[in-house]
Amino acid sequence: MTDSSAPLPWKHISKTLTQYAPLWGGTVVLFTVFGIGYALFSSDYWSASQPLVLRDEATGSVERLGRFGSQTQMKAAQETILEMATNYEVVAEALRAIGPEDGSDDPQWPSSSLVRGIANHHVNVRAPQGSEFGNTEVVYLQTQATTPERAAKLCQAVYESLAHRLRTVRQLRADSIVEELRQARELAAEKLADVTSELKEIEIAFGSDLADLRSLSETFGDGGGRRLLDETLREQQAAELELEQLESLHQLLVAGREDPQKLLVSGGDLLSAQPSLLRMKDGLIQAQLESSQLSGRYTDVHPRLRAAIETENEIRQKLQKETGAVVDAMQPQLTLGRDKVKRLQQKQQRLTERLDRLAHVRADYAHLASEVKHRTDLLAQADKALTEAQASSASSTSVNLLAELGPPVVSDSPIGTSGSILTIGSATAGLLFGLGAVFLVAPGPNTTGRGRRWSDIISGRRATDRGGSVSASAVPPGVDRRANRSPGTPQQSDVPATVMPMPVGRRASDQIAPNNPPSQQPAAPPAFAPAPLKSDAAQSRAIDTNPTASVPNASPTNPKLPPLVYRDTTATGNSAPAETPPSNETTPPSKPEATPSSPKETPTVRNIQPVIASRKPKLHEIWQEVQTKGASKTDSKKPRRAKRSQTAESATPEETAPKDGPLADIHSTISLDEPSLKRAMDVSAFPGDRRRHTRDDS
């Protein structure tokens, strides 16, 4: 079963609560006293609310009948009401209207602090049913006072003061707008007068052509001058065509007077204006046809042929005479035609010059005319706005935009928390605070000791302090377990050579087992006691909490390798724990066959022979790997270190092997030289010191 499923220690909890009863009981009493004191000395407040409706001004917006144009305008107006309701002058006027609570006549009442306090905490304007401003035209004016009657009076007084303040603000705003619009109207009138005078000068200069000048400024239609010019052009074209026909007929008649035969070959269009000539032309043609027919039948001396020829000659002579008379009669007609064309040309020229002169001033006249129209519109708008502002100013003193829908309504009970609930809540808060303080300072059910810092109480001891430590009972009185335990220093300790956990403390000296001085060493043969191993479950929990602590006192470079820990109790008088050198291999070692000896008996070499024999292959592999890495690293070091490494490599195991003592027994057992074994012991001697590990591993 894991720690999370362990039952709650109810017995420990009840014992702790009983032990710390003054602490949590005192907090309950203290908080309860505070709650009772606050409930006794605080004042109760009743709330009074009055519904109000707000509308917009009807002046200038009669089609909406006082309704707001948009929701944004309504929201802005209601927020303005909220700000004005909490205004200093409004609240002060309302308080002066209802007077002090005690009924005294104090001319300095109300004070500034009282007015500000009531305005900030006891007067409010809210929307109905918890909505926001702008959804409806109805708002609620809410006030608070120490008595229901005073709350209702204060609500009514605030409403009257607010309505009066709104009328005053409207009047001030309307008066300022009226003054501004009056100045705008006067300025518009002055500008209009200046532009009108300039336009008047142009119209006087072109008085006869004013209609044409105005017509040129219009975007549609033609003026009288333009129409007259068009008619003159049409008449001129007709007169010129008629004159051309008369001149052509005159030329034909002049030629026909000399040779009538030319009249016969001319068309009838030219002679249509002279019927007599046309009939004589037809008679001559008929006589010539008859003579031609008779000449084909008769000879020249035949009477009928001769009669026909004489008739033809007679008609030709009359035609010549008639033609001469017509030519003489056409001279006045030609003169009239030429005069008419000339007059029309002169008229067309005069009209063209007149229109050209109007075109030169058309742009200026059009600009002045449009400016006059614009100034006139501005003046009309200013007059309209001024009229509306004057109407608003006149109605601001008699009309309220904020109307009440009913009288103030007072709450049935005081608002806020009652004294009993406040007392119970204070006692509950004190109880919770006291219990929290108790469980903060009280030790847990499994806590056997504390650290020397406040951080150890809150977050627990540090990781380096949580390992196994030397029991106080294992150290004799008067012996300092933190004394110098370096090799070669005599120690005043009679600690028997027992199998105990590896001491782990905050200092490197705390991690060294105590040694016996040479004078107090037991006569037993040298022994090396292996440190006890944790169970598989303990190792699994250690691996889950700390990956580098898979086994007791494991090396950081190879957490899964359980090292050997020994303590020397022989003639040197010093004992130091030792571990095997760290290795990069990850394969878990085989479990030792031997079990640790009892704490009462002294371990010997024979006791640990099976352990050493089982770990001999792994120690050989570690030693070979250390030698290989050392040889590869010394090639890149300085010459001095390279020389030292070569000297160490050239030494044979027989030269470095100890001749007697406990190291000789170990060497004979696992075939390791004394320097290598000491180095392996030094590497794992201090598993908590990272600097030592880093230095030895490198």
Helix content: 55-70%
> Structurally, how many domains make up the residues?
3
Stretches where pLDDT is under 50 for at least 5 consecutive residues are: 466-474, 483-504, 511-606, 641-653, 662-672, 680-698
How many strand segments? 5
Number of helices: 20
Your description of this structure?
There is one protein chain. The chain has 698 residues and is mostly helical. The protein folds into 3 domains: 16-181 and 400-410, Bacterial polysaccharide co-polymerase-like (2-Layer Sandwich); 224-395, no CATH class; 454-697, no CATH class. Helix content is 57%, strand content 4%. The protein contains 20 helices and 5 strands. The protein has helices at residues 10-19, 21-41, 71-85, 88-98, 112-121, 148-205, 210-217, 224-258, 261-265, 275-297, 303-395, 419-441, 454-459, 536-545, 609-634, 639-650, 653-656, 662-670, 674-683, 690-697; strands spanning 46-54, 123-126, 138-145, 402-404, 409-410. Strands 1, 2, 3, 4 and 5 form a 5-stranded antiparallel β-sheet that branches. Residues 466-474, 483-504, 511-606, 641-653, 662-672 and 680-698 have low confidence and may be disordered.
